[in-house]
Amino acid sequence: MHQMSAPIQSQTRRTLLFGGIMSALPLWGWAATNPLWLDVQRAGERYRMNLLQSDGYKAAAWMLRDVQADNTVGQPDTHLLLRLALLQRWVAEHYGYCVFDITSGLRMPNTNAATEGAAHQSRHLPGPSLRFRAVDFIPRGVDLSKVHTLALHMPQSGVGLYDEHLHLDVRPQSARW
């Protein structure tokens, strides 16, 4: 397992905090001084990263890449990463620690077209600068329905429960399926 927690330059940290994740944290001012951990695995790799550091964001982008499109790396929406990390924290507090096994993050148009049941306007698809707003994952070691119940409390999110995984995305109004 890789752990991304090395200190970064204050200028880089300031840019990341106030230009990205901190803009998503109006109610959680504690995040400026505390790490925001996300522990994910995919395709034999596992990273536990602090999203408030630039190398943490880069690791998250790598783990949410489109593995079917030559490992194309996009720019995950910072609000999406925040929700994913907070959900993981809630799961740990209520049911025990678990790793999120990423099944899909960024989907390039050809990958999305080849994905059964994928929406034509999926939030997995990249927008400008390859920014995307959705992730599918399996919580390892915790019942899927329990994590789904917690995810339903995420504001301005799309939350979908499937047989094998959960879907989480960022949107103006909440949606549930």
Automatic annotation (TrEMBL):
<dbReference type="InterPro" id="IPR013230">
    <property type="entry name" value="Peptidase_M15A_C"/>
</dbReference>
<dbReference type="InterPro" id="IPR009045">
    <property type="entry name" value="Zn_M74/Hedgehog-like"/>
</dbReference>
<protein>
    <submittedName>
        <fullName>DUF882 domain-containing protein</fullName>
    </submittedName>
</protein>
<feature type="domain" description="Peptidase M15A C-terminal">
    <location>
        <begin position="76"/>
        <end position="169"/>
    </location>
</feature>
<dbReference type="Pfam" id="PF08291">
    <property type="entry name" value="Peptidase_M15_3"/>
</dbReference>
